């Protein structure tokens, strides 16, 4: 799953007055914001409120209107449903499998690409290129790679005398296989954020420390990593949210299978809403998931606040 | 509906046109004019043939502006169809699977097709494969015109089967009508192909495992749901017998234990398996591959005297709209009749025609391998009734997922059955959203 919003970390030193004292707020600003606000209300706030209302009704996809009032019925049903909890767990498991590698590898590759003396453009392109592929293309490439009997990995491993697991067909392997695909696909985004962060670190810090006899490893540990703390927080949170939103890869590559082992919470919402026509119930599940994402965002907010106070 | 002068005239015109041409060829409707929106879900070879049929309709009815929309098959299609109808902007005619059509009827989204209206276009119940027609009735009323039956069938590689000694002197495959005969044939085919005996899709596809299970399970007389899905009547002994048999095929290496849809096609097309099990629609794939193959009925492994096989039908439906008038209805039925008259084109794609005037013709009987498995239409088992059932439904996902774990060797038949039962009970207890 990709992330559309890029939140830039605010520069460390901010000299201007606090926002509320700046000139240009008030009515004129509202005028400029109006086109955005109208769309935002129509396509984000409006549907969210409608979804919230719907979650308290037995709304059906194939009947007009909201249908009967269900109270908290949909919520209690979801919380008692093993399908709800297992798909929520799959989403969390996917997040756990993808987030650490997508942070660590992006950092390592950005560091290496930044140090490359020649052909730096090539490394940048190589790591970023998969990110611009649509999910369907990525899925098709990796379905071929994982195909049992005929796929790239199995054919390759057979040549060196190894047998490979049934990547997408074995319930235990399917999720790690999807995680690997996702890491290859979306690494480029975090890579670019880290690359930008690296270029903001003043060069003289490295020069000064080199004069004092710091080794490259010490420089990375004592200069690069601390100076990139903000970027890391940003990357981590964007990544957690992007991973929680996973849907495409699984829907296309495994359809939530084998035996529901890769059905994410969003696919559960899709299955209930669009396959079973129970949009009221699906809305309730979405709201519960929304709470989870909200909590993650709140944690991020708290961390950023603390970091800003610390600087 | 009140009878208007225009409706009366156009009805008479259609009837006159019919009287002139009888039952042969595309019904010309020179006097019919207006526009016609048609939705379908056909891709691949079916899509090409459907386009041919629509072109023939356009040529025969130059004054009708026909616009056809092809949408991706599966749940999104039915969602769109339902929402468009709810929003009073449905297509005039649409394709629906027979097993999904009843959900649309119970939601009040389809127009009833009255015998009198159908008769004006020379359409009546006795002209269809009885099973396909009967299965589509809701409380005795017709809402859908079946154009075909598409059963689960057996494809076989004629070279491999000959090498394995499975063909008789006339080149026909000996019947595989017991578990022992079936397994033995797969073993011989495996020796001949050097890789696998047969192949069926397991990975990333819940429909195919469901189809093979349902075919064998109904041969034993087993049923899954009753009372329109409110009761689960899964027979553990019968299900276990089928699942144990299926697992023995992958466990012994006669079938690959984890092939996806494209992979299983490739395995069969590359000659790495002697048999391939899928709906007949894959005929075009193997014709294009120019490989030596034939098709026949899915074997009657467990049935004895009773034959049964999983199937569904494509039907034409007329979604309900507030501004439906007789002229519009007749225009729609003109297209329906034209599709039926072009059953030959449609049958080339493997589907068993539901339109008896063609199905019983010498022309169809001469079509091979299509006519080899025509009897499947009379033994077709459609998915059990229920709001959560039908092609591509959650019912099939629940059943197919469990069957796939057995085929893949990840679960025992007993565990798979208890998983099926648990999930089905949940669905059966959920109040219908329809």
UniProtKB/TrEMBL annotation, chain A:
<dbReference type="GO" id="GO:0055085">
    <property type="term" value="P:transmembrane transport"/>
</dbReference>
<protein>
    <submittedName>
        <fullName>Sugar ABC transporter permease</fullName>
    </submittedName>
</protein>
<keyword id="KW-0812">Transmembrane</keyword>
<keyword id="KW-1003">Cell membrane</keyword>
<dbReference type="InterPro" id="IPR035906">
    <property type="entry name" value="MetI-like_sf"/>
</dbReference>
<feature type="transmembrane region" description="Helical">
    <location>
        <begin position="125"/>
        <end position="153"/>
    </location>
</feature>
<dbReference type="InterPro" id="IPR051393">
    <property type="entry name" value="ABC_transporter_permease"/>
</dbReference>
<comment type="similarity">
    <text>Belongs to the binding-protein-dependent transport system permease family.</text>
</comment>
<dbReference type="Pfam" id="PF00528">
    <property type="entry name" value="BPD_transp_1"/>
</dbReference>
<feature type="transmembrane region" description="Helical">
    <location>
        <begin position="227"/>
        <end position="247"/>
    </location>
</feature>
<feature type="region of interest" description="Disordered">
    <location>
        <begin position="1"/>
        <end position="24"/>
    </location>
</feature>
<dbReference type="InterPro" id="IPR000515">
    <property type="entry name" value="MetI-like"/>
</dbReference>
<feature type="domain" description="ABC transmembrane type-1">
    <location>
        <begin position="88"/>
        <end position="300"/>
    </location>
</feature>
<keyword id="KW-0472">Membrane</keyword>
<feature type="transmembrane region" description="Helical">
    <location>
        <begin position="173"/>
        <end position="196"/>
    </location>
</feature>
<feature type="transmembrane region" description="Helical">
    <location>
        <begin position="92"/>
        <end position="113"/>
    </location>
</feature>
<feature type="transmembrane region" description="Helical">
    <location>
        <begin position="279"/>
        <end position="303"/>
    </location>
</feature>
<keyword id="KW-1133">Transmembrane helix</keyword>
<feature type="transmembrane region" description="Helical">
    <location>
        <begin position="32"/>
        <end position="57"/>
    </location>
</feature>
<keyword id="KW-0813">Transport</keyword>
<dbReference type="GO" id="GO:0005886">
    <property type="term" value="C:plasma membrane"/>
</dbReference>
Automatic annotation (TrEMBL), chain B:
<protein>
    <submittedName>
        <fullName>Sugar ABC transporter substrate-binding protein</fullName>
    </submittedName>
</protein>
<keyword id="KW-0732">Signal</keyword>
<comment type="similarity">
    <text>Belongs to the bacterial solute-binding protein 1 family.</text>
</comment>
<dbReference type="InterPro" id="IPR006311">
    <property type="entry name" value="TAT_signal"/>
</dbReference>
<dbReference type="Pfam" id="PF01547">
    <property type="entry name" value="SBP_bac_1"/>
</dbReference>
<feature type="signal peptide">
    <location>
        <begin position="1"/>
        <end position="15"/>
    </location>
</feature>
<dbReference type="GO" id="GO:0042956">
    <property type="term" value="P:maltodextrin transmembrane transport"/>
</dbReference>
<dbReference type="GO" id="GO:1901982">
    <property type="term" value="F:maltose binding"/>
</dbReference>
<dbReference type="InterPro" id="IPR006059">
    <property type="entry name" value="SBP"/>
</dbReference>
<keyword id="KW-0813">Transport</keyword>
<dbReference type="GO" id="GO:0055052">
    <property type="term" value="C:ATP-binding cassette (ABC) transporter complex, substrate-binding subunit-containing"/>
</dbReference>
<dbReference type="GO" id="GO:0015768">
    <property type="term" value="P:maltose transport"/>
</dbReference>
């Amino acid at each position: 799953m990709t992330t559309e919003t890029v939140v830039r970390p605010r520069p460390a030193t901010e000299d201007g007055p606090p926002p509320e004292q700046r000139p240009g707020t008030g009515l004129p600003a509202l005028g400029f914001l109006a086109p955005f606000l109208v769309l935002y209300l129509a396509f984000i706030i409006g549907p969210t409120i409608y979804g919230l209302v719907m979650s308290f009704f037995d709304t059906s996809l194939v009947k007009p209107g909201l249908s009967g009032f269900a109270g908290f019925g949909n919520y209690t049903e979801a919380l008692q449903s093993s399908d709800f909890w297992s798909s929520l767990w799959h989403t969390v498991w996917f997040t756990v499998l993808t987030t650490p590698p997508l942070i660590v590898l992006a950092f390592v590759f950005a560091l290496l690409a930044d140090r490359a003396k020649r052909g730096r453009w090539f490394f940048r392109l190589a790591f970023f290129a998969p990110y611009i592929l649509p999910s369907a293309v990525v899925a098709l490439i990796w379905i071929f790679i994982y195909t049992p009997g005929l796929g790239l990995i199995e054919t390759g491993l057979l040549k060196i005398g190894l047998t490979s697991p049934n990547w997408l067909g074995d319930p235990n392997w399917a999720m790690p296989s999807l995680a690997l695909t996702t890491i290859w696909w979306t690494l480029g985004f975090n890579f670019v954020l880290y690359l930008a962060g690296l270029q903001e670190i003043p060069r003289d810090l490295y020069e000064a420390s080199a004069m004092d006899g710091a080794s490259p490893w010490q420089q990375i540990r004592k200069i690069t990593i601390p100076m990139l703390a903000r970027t890391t927080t940003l990357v981590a949170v964007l990544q957690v949210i992007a991973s929680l939103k996973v849907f495409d890869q699984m829907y296309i590559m495994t359809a939530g299978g084998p035996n529901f082992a890769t059905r994410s919470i969003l696919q559960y919402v899709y299955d209930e809403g669009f396959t079973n026509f129970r949009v009221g119930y699906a809305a309730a599940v979405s709201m519960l998931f929304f709470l989870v994402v909200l909590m993650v965002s709140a944690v991020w907010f708290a961390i950023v606040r603390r970091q800003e106070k610390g600087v | 509906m009140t009878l208007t002068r225009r409706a009366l005239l156009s009805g008479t015109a259609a009837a006159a046109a019919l009287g002139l041409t009888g039952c042969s060829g595309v019904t010309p409707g020179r006097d019919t004019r207006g526009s016609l929106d048609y939705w379908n879900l056909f891709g691949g070879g079916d899509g090409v043939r459907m386009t041919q049929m629509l072109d023939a309709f356009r040529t025969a009815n130059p004054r009708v502006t026909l616009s056809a929309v092809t949408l991706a098959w599966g749940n999104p299609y039915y969602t769109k169809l339902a929402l468009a109808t709810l929003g009073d902007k449905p297509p005039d005619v649409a394709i629906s699977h027979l097993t999904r059509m009843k959900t649309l009827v119970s939601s009040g989204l389809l127009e009833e097709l009255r015998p009198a209206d159908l008769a004006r276009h020379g359409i009546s119940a006795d002209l269809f494969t009885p099973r396909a027609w009967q299965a589509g009735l809701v409380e005795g009323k017709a809402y859908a015109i079946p154009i075909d039956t598409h059963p689960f069938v057996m494809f076989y590689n004629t070279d491999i089967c000959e090498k394995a000694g499975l063909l008789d002197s006339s080149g026909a495959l000996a019947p595989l009508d017991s578990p022992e005969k079936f397994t033995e044939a797969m073993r011989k085919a495996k020796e001949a192909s050097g890789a696998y005996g047969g192949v069926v899709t397991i990975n990333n596809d819940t429909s195919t495992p469901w189809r093979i299970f349902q075919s064998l399970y109904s041969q034993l007389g087993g049923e899954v749901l009753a009372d329109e899905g409110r009761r689960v009547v899964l027979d553990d002994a019968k299900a276990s017998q089928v699942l144990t048999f299926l697992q023995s095929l992958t466990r012994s290496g006669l079938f690959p234990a984890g092939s996806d849809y494209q992979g299983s096609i490739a395995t069969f097309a590359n000659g790495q398996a002697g048999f391939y099990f899928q709906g007949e629609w894959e005929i075009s794939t193997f014709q294009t591959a120019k490989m030596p193959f034939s098709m026949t009925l899915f074997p009657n492994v467990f049935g004895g005297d009773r034959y049964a096989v999983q199937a569904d039908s494509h039907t034409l439906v007329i979604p309900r709209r507030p501004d439906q008038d007789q002229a519009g209805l007749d225009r729609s039925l003109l297209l329906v009749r034209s599709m039926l008259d072009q059953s030959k084109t449609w049958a080339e794609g493997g589907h068993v025609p539901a339109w008896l005037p063609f199905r019983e013709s010498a022309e169809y009987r001469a079509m091979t391998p299509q006519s080899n498995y025509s009897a499947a239409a009379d033994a077709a088992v459609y998915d059990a009734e229920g709001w959560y059932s039908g092609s591509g439904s959650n019912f099939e996902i629940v059943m197919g997922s469990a069957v796939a774990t057995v085929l893949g060797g990840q679960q025992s038949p007993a565990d798979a059955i208890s998983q099926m039962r648990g999930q089905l009970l949940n669905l059966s207890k959920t109040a219908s959203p329809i």
